[in-house]
Structures are given as C-alpha cells and as structure tokens.
Fold this protein.
Amino acid sequence: MTSTAAVTMSPHFWSERYRSVRAALPALAAGLSPEDLTAQSMPDCSPGKWHLAHASWFFEAMILSGQPDYVPVDPQFQILFNSYYDALGERVARHERGLMTRPSLEAVLAYRHEIDRRMTDWLERTVMTDQQAYLVELGLNHEQQHQELFLMDMLNLMSRSPLDPAAYDEEPRHSVSEAAKGGTVWFDGGLAMIGHDGEGFAFDNESPAHRQWLEPFGLAADLVSQGDWLSFIADGGYRRPELWLADGWARVQAEDWEAPLYWRQDGDGWSVMALAGRRPVTPEAAVRHISFYEADAFARWSGKRLPTEAEWEQAMRHRSEVFSGAFGEVWQWTASGYDAYPGFTPTPGTAAEYNGKFMANQKVLRGGSFATPEGHERISYRNFFYPHQRWAFAGLRLAEDQAPSPKAPDQDGAATRFQRDLIAGLSKTPKTASPKWFYDAHGSELFEQITRLPEYYPTRQEAALLRRVAPQWAERFGPNATLVEFGSGASEKTRVVLDAAPDLHAYVPIDISAAALEGAVERISAAYPGLTVAPLVGDFLHMPPLPDVVGTGRRIGFFPGSTIGNLEPDEAVAFLRAARALLGPGSLFILGVDLVKEPAVLIAAYDDAEGVTAAFNRNLLARANRELGADFDVEAFAHKAVWNTEAQRMEMHLQATRPMQARIGDTVIAFERGETIHTENSRKFTEAAVRDLAQAAGWTELAFEAGPAPSVALALLGAD
Ligand SMILES: C[S@@+](CC[C@H](N)C(=O)[O-])C[C@H]1O[C@@H](n2cnc3c(N)ncnc32)[C@H](O)[C@@H]1O
C-alpha cells in the first residue's frame, strides 16, 4: 500500500478536508440543468448526474460498508453507481449510463448529502487505521479525478450540439498561462530514480520508486502551442500517412480527423469549443484535445519524439523551474505504455481494482491540466488513456535524443524550421515573420553594410561606449573565464572585450547564421591565437548546451547590438532567464540596448537613403525563394520603417504593393494590396525598463552606462 502520514491528523482535520473536497463537484454542477446532467454524449463519457452519484458510492463501498451491520442508503445504488469493480457485483454497462433517467437529479443530490452526513459523522468519531486513512485519501483523490472527468464530459456533451452552447458563462477553472521559456533543456543520461518516494499520498500505480536508465535527452521548455498545430495542419499533417503510426492513420481516415477534437474551420478561421463556448484558436496557448496518435505524428513531423514518462519525471524532479506549463495547463502524452512498475502491488482490498487492471494498451500522460484540482497534481502522477482518445485536456511537450553536435549544424533541419516558421507567421492575421530568418550569408553581409551607414548610429555608438567601460568591467571576470556571445554576427565588438580581458580562456560565439559565424571564427582565431574559440551554430531562443571547452571560471554572457530589442517582452525575459540557467551561478552578462529617442533619428536609421535596410528587409523573401523554392515577387513588397509610440519600438514591415499570391511548398499565401508582413521589432529602452527586464529574468543590474546622443547603453548584469 502507498501510505500516507496523514493518519496522525485529527478527526476534525479529516472532516474539514472531506467537506472542502466534496463541495467542488456540486458547485460545478450547480448552473447546469437536470437534462444537461442526465445525457451521455459518447460511451467514454458519463452523465454528470452519474459522476455526482458514483463519487459518493465510492465512499460508501470502500469505507462506510466496512462498518459492522452497515445498512446501505439504497441497495439499488450499489448496482447503479458501481463503475468497474467486479468484486462488488452487478453494475450497469458503461455505455448505458445515459439511460438512467431514474433516480432523479434531486434523489442523487439527496444521496450525496446522506453520504456526506454519514462520512463526516464517521470521520469525527473514528481513530483511523493506516488502511482506513489511505482509503479516505483515495476517496478524496478519486472525487478530484471525477471533478476533471465531469468537466471533460460536459464539454464533450456541449460540443455535440450544433448550437455550440456554453456549459459555463465563465471558464470554471483557469490555465496557469506561464510565459514561454524557450528552447530545449538538456539532461545527461544515467540512472534515475522514478516513482513515488513515499512522502504523502500517491495512487498505487506510482509505486514502488525504482531505478531506470536514461540516455542523454532534451525536453522542450514549453508545451506545443495551437500556433504550432496550425503549422502542422497547414503542412498537410493530417494528410501525410508517413507521419503516422498505422493505427493512428487508420483513425485519421475512419474518423476524418483534420484537426484536434473541437476545432472547426469556417470563414473566420479556426475556432475551438471550450467550457465557456466556442472561441477563436489562440496561437500562443497550449494545444488541447489531441490523441496520443496525433501527438506522436506531430513529434515525427517536428523531427523530434515524445518523452518517456521517466524522462519527463527526471526533468521535472530536477529542473522544474526551467519549464513552463508542467502542471495546470494540459496533461502531456508520453511515449510510455501504462505498465506496472517493477514490484508493483495493488492496494489491498476492494480498491485493488482501482488502477492495476487497466495496465494494457494505454499510454501514460504526465503533469496536470487547467481542470485538475489544485493540490491534486504530483510529479510522480501517472494519468492514462487509450491512444485514440481525444476528449481529455491533453497536449504534448517534445523531446529529442541527443544534443546536436556543436560543430555540425543541421542545415536541412534549419530549412524545414524556416519553412514551418514562415508559413505559420504568414498564416496569421496580421502576417508576421521572425527577424532571425534575415540572417543567411547574404543577410549577414547586408547587416554588416548597415552598420557602416551614416544614418545607422547604434553600432558606432555602442562600440565607443564598450571601449570606455570594458577595461573596468573586465576586472570582474576573474581567471579561466569564458565569453559566450549570443547573435555574434561578425564578432567585431567582441574584439573590444577580448582586448580588455587578455586572460580569457575561451570564446563561444552563438549565431543562427553559419556563414557569419564561419568568417568571424576565422578572423578571431587568427587575431587571438591563444584563445580557444568554440562556435555554435544555433538559435539562441532554443538554447544549445555549451561545448566542453568552457573554462572552469566565470561565464560572461555578451549580447550587444540591441538584439534583445528584437524579442517580444515575454520572449526577452525567457531568453535572459534561459541564458542565466546556461551560464550558471556567479556569471556576468553584458547587455547592449538602444535607448528611446527622437523618432526622426530612429526612422532614418531604419530607412537609409541608400536602401540597404530595405534590401535587408526584402532578403527575407529572397531567401525563401532561394532556400525553399518559394515564388515571392520580392520587388512588389515595399520596405516600411515606423515608430510605434505605444510599444516604444521601431517596426519594419514589408508591404504588398498589389494583390498577389506566393507559394511556399504546398502552401499558398494570399496578399491584399497594402497588406503587410511585420518582419522586425526593435524595442527601445530606458534605464528603468532594462532594470525591470533584468530583474524579471533573475539578474541583478550591477552597472548601467549610457553614451552620448544618439544614445545607446550597456548594462552589466550579475547572477547570484
Ligand atoms: C542585429 S545583429 C547583431 C550582430 C552583433 N552582435 C552586433 O552587435 O553587431 C543580430 C545577430 O544575431 C543573429 N541572430 C538573430 N536571431 C538569432 C537567433 N534566434 N539565434 C541565434 N542568432 C540569431 C543574427 O544572425 C545576427 O548575426
């Protein structure tokens, strides 16, 4: 038995806890009609009335009936509300629960009241044995499971009506909606302890704790979003058998799947049915209502895979702070079959049938959803569903096998990511594209030309300021330090830091542009022969692990060029937080930012007289033509640079000068005349904004220096 230390709690504690858990289900049912609570929308679902009754029956069957001479509230209810306990005799077939028009809702609520009266009375006068305390806790956890099942089933019922009725005026429970953290978190392999460690309550299927061998793996910091899923759909995800397991593909065809359950496409785009009614798909929210088969196909399409449950648990046990949405958003499908752990023994007695007998043909989900009651979730919790089931609040988080080799850029993968990202951005309204795709070899060269333009002050101003502060700041680096530069480009400003810190052990430039990195590494290695240079081609928003050459001393992050201003505010916090995790305790971070100033100065810097910035902006489409075989009429897009006062940022857009269409792979994107693609934001900062940003990401501002007009600034940040 998986025990609970709570046996030592007072009878009063138990009766209060019982009351508070039991209050939730009637509250969820309160606004629904007796008809809503009687219907059964499919064999997997149960009527709301049945949930209300069955969760009460559980206490009667598992606890109250253990008393000598116990008289049941109504012997017939023992048959009607037994779910699947063979040892407890006859029951109604699951798919026929919707036929129970009798007892009435009123009678079921009266049954609940009577069970509550008997249970609280029993709890207040009983000094429980370990086994009894476990069964009470099990009953309460069972009740909590039925709260979530109740919401799943009500949503399914509402979804079956052509009227799209809202079960609730407002969502009865809310997601945690943590900001995205970005990237993949890497774990060494080795022996891991998995399973319930004996502290507090757990279901029997979480025990015993045992060792499992893990190969090195990466787990995505964030859940797969609805926006990601739109890209999967747009890329023919539901039409390509090569992405699917055979059983999954058979389901896609038999049930005409073309999107997650509850999604619908009409004139206004995709919408999704939720507990408070139908609403537009939200690209940044986690995808929900997918089967294991869909999660698996999505992972294959992404070039990744689903995590095993042991990988998920190991990651959350040791680095939960670097993940978003681990709990409180969606249950996450794993690749693991729902099997007994080595040494598993079911709970003794009638509750033996609770979990163990379902250990065939199902898949484990980990985490918890927005509908999971607070306090019910646990790192070792094993939820399970059949691989085709879609009505749970289930989504996914991707895993991958090995950290990519630092020196072997996956250029094919990069092209796929570029295509996927571009299609996703151009499928939105308004259309967007990420600025990181500006930087192929030609784009990097154009950026270098921009830095030499008379109107483009930031590079000159920042280099001059860096020359002023670097000698003093370098005194803090200490021995054996490593400089890690994010978005290093031509590594020109880096020289100022390297000159100020001749004892640096290693330099790790990270850039998405392999071409820019190659040239920079050649020049830096020639100019600083004693320095170990270990380049990483990669996306700093998906933080790659540092190479082995890193010194034993302090790590110094370097992020000049106000590239931070290209990130959305949430993304900037997530980036700085991930950088802090990568660089470790005691690290320093030199951050370059452009400051808020006269719009005329800014606009000139982003719309130069020679048209180099315009060519840089259009290079995004030219690159799509070169690398993806797209057919953008590049010259038909005008370069626009605008100051957005409210968001305090310069924006670059590409504006269609006529109606047109462009094809990327199988996807056709239509443009109206005047429609724009928002290609870049360059947020401008104040000292207070930099301090707030640093603080939000867990850094402390150690120094802040601004240069003369047109002003840029450098901040020195420290990690405790
Ligand atoms: C504005 S330039 C700055 C270059 C240089 N740090 C400077 O200050 O002059 C941005 C650089 O970041 C790189 N970059 C942009 N987004 C990136 C991403 N997500 N991951 C890695 N590199 C990125 C680009 O290739 C480019 O070299």
